[in-house]
């Protein structure tokens, strides 16, 4: 009996000898859940980057009927070079399919970004706001634009004003 105990010590096969009670997570192996996208980061990307070029939006900024934001230069380059036209913007056939946006700049916005440790940049505030109630255009709140003039408002402001004409 002493010999088997010594052999187990040398080989390292001790445990589960009746004195330990295994937990469920030690006995049952579960599949790892797939990694989830960060929805807040995805929304911030949609509101701050061009849909075609994936670069930060630069003035003049245009929008299509689906509500996607583009840098006008990216649209022009894509329309001129039909071979490299992305599928995301395949519904845009000419400049008549997009509208120039009249965006209100945010006075609290500072150019540049603060780098966090994992390579994520945090701007702190959005470059544009709603001209009626001052809500930041950062992806957390819904925004609409009027096709007639290109003015951009938050959905909250449009509900409060209850009109679809430009102010």
Automatic annotation (TrEMBL):
<dbReference type="GO" id="GO:0006274">
    <property type="term" value="P:DNA replication termination"/>
</dbReference>
<dbReference type="InterPro" id="IPR006735">
    <property type="entry name" value="Rtf2"/>
</dbReference>
<comment type="similarity">
    <text>Belongs to the rtf2 family.</text>
</comment>
<protein>
    <recommendedName>
        <fullName>Replication termination factor 2</fullName>
    </recommendedName>
</protein>
<dbReference type="Pfam" id="PF04641">
    <property type="entry name" value="Rtf2"/>
</dbReference>
<dbReference type="InterPro" id="IPR027799">
    <property type="entry name" value="Rtf2_RING-finger"/>
</dbReference>
<dbReference type="GO" id="GO:0005634">
    <property type="term" value="C:nucleus"/>
</dbReference>
